[in-house]
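Format notes (please read before filing issues)

Several people have asked whether sequences and structure tokens are stored in separate files. They are not. Every record keeps both together, in the order shown below: the sequence lines, then the token lines. Line labels are part of the format and must not be stripped during preprocessing.
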Amino acid sequence: MNRFILIVTIISFQLVAFSQKSQKKQRVRENIHHELTVPPKPIDPQVVQDQDDMTWNDYHPIPGKNWADPALVPERKFRMALIAVDFPDQPFVITLPKGSDLFGNPQIDPVKRENVPQFYSDFWLKPSPINHGQTINGYWMEQSRGKFGITALDAYGPYRMPKNLWNYGLNEYGQNSSTPDSSRASARMEPDIDALWKADAGDIKSKYDAVLRIYAGYDETGVWQEFGEMKFLSKDAIPREWSNPDTTKPAWVPTRYVPWTSWKAGQMQWGLSSIRQGENSGTITHELGHYAFEIGDNNNNPYIKPYRRVGSGPWDMMDRGSFNGPGGPHMRWVVPAAMGASMPAGLMLRNRMTNGFIAKDQVLILSRNDLALSGPVVASVTSRACEPLPGMVAGIIVRLDGEEPHDKTTPDDPAVNPLSPGIPNFDFYSVEVVQRIGYDSFCPDNGVLIAKNKDKESRNGGPNGFNCFNWVIDAHPEDIKMVDYVRPDGLKVMRTIADYRQLNDALFHAGINSGSLSEWEDAANKLHFYIIDIDKNEEGIISYRIGIRSLEQKTDFKREFTVTPVKERKMRQKAGYKFFTLKNTGEPAVADPSLHYQNTVRWLNYDIYRLSVTIEGKAWSGQLINGFVSLMPGESAIVPVYLSGGKDAARHVKIILSVKSETDPLKSVSSTLVVK
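Then the structure lines:
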């Protein structure tokens, strides 16, 4: 291989990452044709796609796996009955002519009433063009890696309810007196629904793990805003067809988050954490999370002041990640429910472990106290949608162990700081990788997700507090400054600081100029997290090399390393790459296998290096590709520096590469290369 090809190969190798393992072969192949003068591109650019802009074209299957395949048999088989009911005043939306009701539904040709129960059973359980091949079974099979799945969804009905829809839908949030006949709505659906199917089929409940009640019409959660303040300029501007049938009464009703919505939207039933769903509901997976695994909600109220930031937002199904899907949260009114909320986010690491979906030996569990003794830990983490790749883990946990209180964060006032996590009673950090494949296809970004978590659920205190057990660390805590919706008069309404989509850009990324952060320091809890590198295998599965160290080091680590330039001093053009070799020349320390919650010896003995470059020479500039490298004793890495000169560039330029050990901050080495 001649020198030119050798240098190009080295550039290609290093432009994407600094790791020294065989995983880099794919990137070498992809970048082998880079020329010497190509400026470096970010190795891991942050590309955030807003939920509103997503379509079904954004779905990307997990390589080699279709968890929705009905032939796959889960370890825990969950059997459900589906009961379908309509009302004297509300037929099944799906039975109406296409696009004919006030809400603009259904989106497909009508289904006969007698076929509605089986239609919805098939829609939720059997892959088809209507559901784009996605089912509630596929979601749970994917999250649990086959441990939990819906194996039956037997259809019953249709049944006609004894009361009108509004008798049930106006029983909440101050709506009780908004009935057309001046009665007080107070009925719940479940007793009447259950009486109907018991009279028809007997008490079949013992045959099933759960009963899913599908009712004609809509979940209010998917229509209150879209057919309230988004559609009408004021409550006095609501037209007759959207109003109370009693024309002497207001055209509006109160609703959960804001003072009013149209009567037609407000008469619909809110979910209220039961497995009771309108025809527009895409949140059955979310409700099963409550029912089958007893996990609570992790979401806030984004509409009232003082604003309180959301907990995990789009990154977890038990928060507003349940709204993920094509078109975003304002497309949850569609029937059948194949848009917003039809593709909920995966479960975060904490929830997967709570559910028993992931083996402990697939997760690296560290002790905050032991990190001070063991030195930094460096491990590679695979995309959470996939099984860990060989030699990698599914995630990292750092227990905030030691004396009480475990979480050393200084409390602040949520009434003043809307970004406050509230009561500092978190038990551990989690680190995982999100990749937009499988059910995570409709997450807004790829990257590293860092969060604080609680072992047990609890409220976070303060005004407008809420149940919060996941608190995502936001790499971009500033206001995202995006439009929520446009009013009928053209006025743009911005997303509040408490909107869950404020966390769309929360993920961390590797490398320089990614648009995000590559490190996170929690000074109060004495922890520093590093996003050292990114890799993608031949199947396209992403993994990240993650480093974690204690800021309260209790062991004297003597680090030794060298930095030397590659002896290529001339440049034929005013732009190109120059190279340095960084080598860890230290001796392996004696690793104590008793430290941490498992034997972590294989992940110890790394040093983490921080890189910086200085350029001396008129009209010259230099740029690194990554700010971090991690090496074991005896390992080395090539560090490229991109050099470019302006019109009046000096004939000689000096490159000074400085390398500092993160574990031994007194240890810093610089190397100089003069180029002409």
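For reference, the curators noted about this record: Residues 325 and 343 are 5 Å apart (CA to CA). Residues 3-16 form the longest helix (14 residues).
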